[in-house]
Amino acid sequence: MSHFNENAKWRYATKKFDTSKKVSSEDLATLKEAIRLSASSFGLQLYKVIIVENPELRAKLLTASWGQTQIVDASHLLIFANQTTVENADVDHYLNNVATTRNLPIDALAGYGDYMKGAVANMPEEVKPIWTAKQTYIALSNLLNAAAELKIDVTPMEGFVPAQYNEILGLDKLGLNAAIVATVGYRHEEDATQHYAKVRKSNEELFLTL
Question: Which of 75, 72, 100 is nearest to 23 (CA)?
């Protein structure tokens, strides 16, 4: 746990990436696996993670990101896109995966499937995209922590226009919405932000024991 906290102290929101340094395919695979293993509500993982490598696309996304250069300078650009709707088919897909992975008859999961479908059916339509968007932040946290262990920098970014991202990437046609962006790479030695003391609330201010 000491390493985890030290890694957390090491990471920061990188403002300037070193464009000459690229994340290796092996490390990228590790980060993808960390994202894949993330917790999610009911285990449904109602989102996609888009890795944008095309420089022309990234240049277009720069204009939709308030001109923040991390979008084009970082080694990799990841977009966590939540589903805008939730259907019974999503639950069925998950149950089939459970049955296959755990070598169970699908009928054994019928009760749990009905429970999940009932919970989704009782959820107002306008709440569903909010719920699925929240799940992307859990996945993002796994990326942050795994990357810090590898001494890879990740900057979570909400400073973008989701509607423009959706249009540029065609996400709306896929029933997806850009929820949160993460730029991944290595800090530039000239990025002064890395030398700032980390500012967080004290335990006394942050935690409330009842």
Answer: 75
Q: Is 142:37 a contact under the CB 8 Å cutoff?
A: yes
Residue 76 has pLDDT above 90, yes or no: yes
CB 71 within 8 A of CB 20: no
CA distance 16 to 73: 8
Beta carbons of 14 and 187 less than 8 angstroms apart: yes
Which residue blocks in 15-161 are alpha helix, DSSP H?
25-36, 55-63, 70-73, 88-102, 110-121, 128-149
DSSP 8-class letter at 190: T
How far apart CA 23 and CA 74 sit, in angstroms, is 9
pLDDT tens for 20-30 read: 999 999 999 99
Q: What is the pairing mode between strands 153-157 and 76-83? A: unpaired
Model confidence band, residue 2 (pLDDT cutoffs 50, 70, 90): confident
1 pLDDT higher than 70: no
The helix or strand, by DSSP H or E, that contains position 20, with its residue range, turns out to be: none
Structure tokens that stand for 65 in this block:
């990101």
Helix (H, G, I), strand (E, B) or coil at 81: strand
Q: What is the pTM of this model?
A: 0.96
Residue appearing with tokens 């995209």? 129
